[in-house]
Design goal:
By secondary structure, this protein is of the alpha+beta class. The protein has one domain (34-200): 3-Layer(aba) Sandwich (NADH Oxidase), CATH 3.40.109.10. The chain has helices at residues 3-8, 21-33, 47-58, 77-95, 102-108, 143-161, 174-181, 207-210; strands spanning 69-74, 119-125, 165-168, 188-196. It is globular and about 50 Å long. The termini are far apart. The chain binds flavin mononucleotide. Flavin mononucleotide is lined by residues 35-36, 38, 111-112, 168-171, 206, 208.
Length: 237
């Protein structure tokens, strides 16, 4: 899938131009309508749609324009079975860390779509990309991983715009994934994603909120002013 090809089909605003009101609205619709998806239809994502989603990921900002990401596309059923097995083991261990009734609830929720999604996608970060010195990364080396997370978010939003669901599976081990996919030891695993059309559409709120696991925090309680010690809700006057 040549990069120029994918990008030629991606819509871009005029240079220096403002987004149209519809485009602006579309950005917010993608942000607020994005969901973590865990149940998928079996039909595959067409190549041109996947190309646009990957091109969006590749246009994320990155420290020193490092572009440290790689996208490992996985369709092979046997490999996905191995990942599912890894998930089952890690999930059992994680659930034991919760007291009842949360343990039972943890085990009752669907927290992955590894086998039902037609495509799995492993997003990695290569800390050696760009050579030994990368502009802006000298004192905060983790900025390579931050950059890769931004690529994941671009991918997630572009997928939402295309009607494609993405679900992040972190209930695995990086060592396990490294072994299954032969990922070199210097490469950092950032995200294991399930990708496909959502079975039953996109939920209107996070599944964990719907299931009473945890609510969205009030934004005002998270916004501080000027210094950390200032209360998030400043007293009037
Ligand atoms: C780093 C990261 C790891 C996640 N891991 C999992 C996971 O293993 N299983 C799962 O069901 N959801 C996982 N999620 C999805 C979150 O549960 C979800 O984003 C959150 O509940 C908010 O829901 P929303 O994405 O639908 O808005 C993960 C999300 C992130 C950002």
């Amino acid at each position: 899938m040549p990069e120029e090809h994918a990008e030629a089909r991606a819509p871009v605003p005029p240079p220096g131009g403002e987004l149209s009101p519809e485009a602006k609205r579309g950005v917010y619709e993608a942000i607020f309508g994005r969901r973590d998806v865990r149940s998928f239809r079996p039909d595959s994502v067409p190549e041109d749609v996947l190309a646009r989603i990957l091109a969006a990921a590749h246009h994320a900002p990155s420290v020193g324009f490092m572009q440290p990401w790689d996208f490992l596309l996985v369709k092979d059923l046997e490999a996905r079975r191995r990942v599912k097995h890894l998930f089952d083991e890690v999930r059992r261990a994680e659930a034991r860390l919760f007291d009842e009734p949360r343990r039972t609830k943890h085990l009752s929720m669907k927290l992955e779509g590894i086998l039902d999604a037609p495509l799995n996608l492993c997003v990695t970060c290569d800390p050696t990309r760009g050579g030994s010195q990368v502009l802006g990364r000298g004192s905060i080396p983790e900025t390579d991983v931050y950059s890769t997370c931004l690529a994941v978010q671009n991918l997630w939003l572009a997928a939402r715009a295309e009607g494609v669901g993405v679900g992040w599976v972190s209930i695995v081990t990086n060592d396990g994934l490294r072994e299954i996919f032969g990922i070199p030891s210097h490469v950092v695993l950032v995200a294991y994603l399930c990708v496909g059309y959502p079975e039953g559409g996109f939920l209107d709120e996070p599944m964990l909120q719907k299931n009473g696991w945890r609510d969205r925090l009030p934004l005002d309680s998270l916004v501080r002013h000027e210094a950390w010690s200032q209360p998030a809700f400043p007293e009037p006057g």
